[in-house]
Write a structure and sequence with these properties.
Monomer. Associates with 30S ribosomal subunit, binds 16S rRNA. The chain has 312 residues and is α/β, with parallel strands linked by helices. The protein contains 9 helices and 13 strands. Helices cover 25% and strands 24% of the residues. The strands form 3 sheets. Strands 10-9-8-11-13-12 form a 6-stranded mixed beta sheet, with helices on both faces. The chain has a 5-stranded mixed beta barrel with strand order 1-2-3-5-4. It has a two-stranded antiparallel ribbon with strand order 6-7. 35% of the residues are buried.
């Protein structure tokens, strides 16, 4: 039977039978774990699978169909393992907060590069705008301008008051969407605002560390009443990059990609080379220094610096 994975707990998977709409708890055959897969999860939410029923409502996944795309990250600790956050995504929302908890530009850029590498459109949702003072709102507007200039859609929202949730809904219609971001950024609150019938559990920010509590333990997908699906994901503390070829990295920064053909050298890495269009644009303030800094950090493969900067 053909199915779609709606929830993954690591050992059991909730699979929707695409023919009947019924849900079944499924496990996977051992062979999936024997193929040298270095992912922590051989099957991800959003995967299209083939499964067989062993008994009523319980089955075994026997095959995974090829994925159109996925969001993947590497642990920022010493682990070599990677984790697929979700697969077969039409649209990703990255929930960004200025504080409570703070979202760094390095975190944003790493997520965006990964999404670009797998051709997943991303919209930045600047949440909690109802809680900011005038100076903080100015900072949020500046940050949004940086990413709009780079080619990304940015929406200022309040998941608690409902500000601009209608705009988010319009973007979601008929699509499979994933919501990602730090713990405490308001992902589950946002999903509850989009569909109040879901009643996802939320928790307050830890005042001691200004970090969110992990209310979402496992990724889970939900059908939406106005069409489409939304995937709630556990909060991400750090976003370790899965290896990207240095010569391709420029392609995943849209504002860099638009200029790179003006560089003197075809293989320009935009570091020390002469007549580099990206560095010239940087000097003219046409490219944000924060974006260039993220580019250099990813280019160097230095997750240690990233961990220290983000206190992870």
């Amino acid at each position: 039977m053909e199915g779609l994975v709606y929830k993954s707990t690591g050992s059991w998977y909730m699979v929707k039978d695409l023919a009947t709409g019924h849900f079944h708890d499924c496990r996977i055959k051992g062979k999936f774990r024997l193929k040298g897969i270095k992912n922590t999860n051989p099957i991800a939410v959003g995967d299209r699978v083939v499964f067989e029923l062993e008994e009523e409502n319980r089955g075994v996944i026997t095959e995974i169909h090829p994925r159109d795309n996925y969001i993947i990250r590497k642990s920022v600790n010493l682990s070599k393992q990677t984790h697929i956050i979700a697969s077969n995504i039409d649209l990703a929302f990255l929930v960004v907060t200025l504080n409570n908890p703070p979202t760094s530009t390095t975190f944003i850029d790493r997520f965006l590069v990964t999404a670009e590498a797998y051709s997943i459109k991303t919209v930045l949702l600047f949440n909690k705008v109802d809680t900011y003072n005038e100076d903080e709102l100015t900072e949020v507007k500046y940050l949004a301008s940086v990413y709009r200039k780079a080619g990304y859609e940015c929406i200022g929202i309040s998941a608690t008051t409902g500000k601009n949730i209608d705009k988010v809904k319009v973007a979601m219609e008929g699509k499979t969407c994933v919501v990602s971001g730090h713990s405490g950024a308001g992902k589950s609150t946002l999903i509850n605002a989009i569909d109040p019938h879901l009643h996802l559990r939320t928790a307050a920010i830890s005042q001691l560390h200004q970090q969110g509590q992990h209310t979402t333990t496992f990724a889970e997908m939900f059908d939406l009443p106005f069409g489409g699906r939304i995937i709630d994901t556990p909060g991400i503390k750090g976003f370790g990059m899965v290896e990207i070829d240095n010569n391709s990295l420029t392609d995943y920064f849209p504002e860099f990609f638009a200029l790179k053909h003006h560089c003197k050298f075809n293989n320009c890495l935009h570091t020390d080379e002469p007549q580099c269009a990206i560095k010239e644009a940087l000097e003219r303030d046409e490219i944000a220094w924060s974006r260039y800094k993220s580019y250099l950090q990813i280019l160097s493969g230095d997750d240690k610096v990233y961990r220290e900067e983000n206190n992870q």
